[in-house]
Amino acid sequence: MSQDNLIKLVSQGDEEGKGKGHIIWSHKNAKKLRGIKIEVKKFNPIAKKHTVYREKK
């Protein structure tokens, strides 16, 4: 895998804002998802629950 496809996903936190700013690195299919920002729900160890992670530069 190339590091060109490596993206940074930043947590938006839970309802109270706990866990905001936690970072996860992942890979993205650049050809298929060109121009689309990824938004996924992943487990946040700081908030101890699943939170929304959005792609940032």
Q: Any key phrases for this structure?
A:
about 55 residues, mainly beta, Rubrerythrin, domain 2, four-stranded antiparallel β-sheet, 4 strands, elongated
What does this structure look like?
- The protein is an all-beta fold.
- It has one domain: Ribosomal protein L33 (Rubrerythrin, domain 2).
- The protein is 0% helix and 44% strand.
- The chain contains no helices and four strands.
- The chain has a four-stranded antiparallel β-sheet, with no helix packed on it.
- Strand 3 and strand 4 form a beta hairpin.
- The two termini are 19 Å apart.
Please summarize what this structure is.
This protein is mainly beta and 57 residues long.
What's the rounded overall pLDDT mean?
90
What separation lies between the terminal Cα atoms? 19 Å
| SS-based class | mainly beta
| Low-confidence blocks of residues | none
Number of domains: 1
Please report which band the strand proportion falls in: under 5%, 5-15%, 15-25%, 25-35%, 35-45% or over 45%.
35-45%
CATH superfamily: Ribosomal protein L33
Our Rg estimate from Cα atoms comes to 12 Å
Largest sheet features: 4 strands, antiparallel
Strand neighbour order, sheet with most strands:
2-1-4-3
CATH topology: Rubrerythrin, domain 2
